[in-house]
Amino acid sequence: MNETIEMMCTRHAIRRFQTRQIDEAALEQILRAGLYAPSAGNNQYSRIVVCQDREINDRLGRINRWMMFKGKDPQAVAHAVSAEQPSIQDDFTLMSGYYNAPTVLTIFTKNHKYAREDAAMIAENILLAAHFLGLSACYVGRTDEVFATEYGHEMRKKWGVPDDMAAVCNVLLGYRDGPEPHGKPRREGRILRV
Please, which pLDDT band fits residue 189 given cuts at 50, 70 and 90? Predict the structure, then answer.
């Protein structure tokens, strides 16, 4: 198998991070890869906000976790995700949906028909670039709900994000702590040849 494709097939979501910050040179390469993702009509509307402030990331991560359960009993609504790299749905003692990652990227894009697609392509480039460089990463949703809160609005304003941009997703970056997740088998019947 092609080496690049093999690397793509071995990327896993990591939710346990070491406290040390990621290397600046690696971050620059990862962000560059994100900027080179395709966008609808080559609009390049998106913005990537890099936050390495632990206090802000912790507060936003706690809001993100709350948005997952919205006051409901986690045991009643959660489902198993990963034994090796537990999510907030596996380990109810985890209080941050950002899993204490030292670097949290928030992808904003102009609120248009293809906003989610544009942001997802940026996120995928970032996830793969991080893996290729030996870093760990995790895609996190619920971002629009987090940034619809009072604190989310406050951060958007502080960061200079224009009002016409939607918060679409987060990508967490850092160095893995704990075991590497095992590859999960792919379900059959997902490719239809016609």
Answer: very high
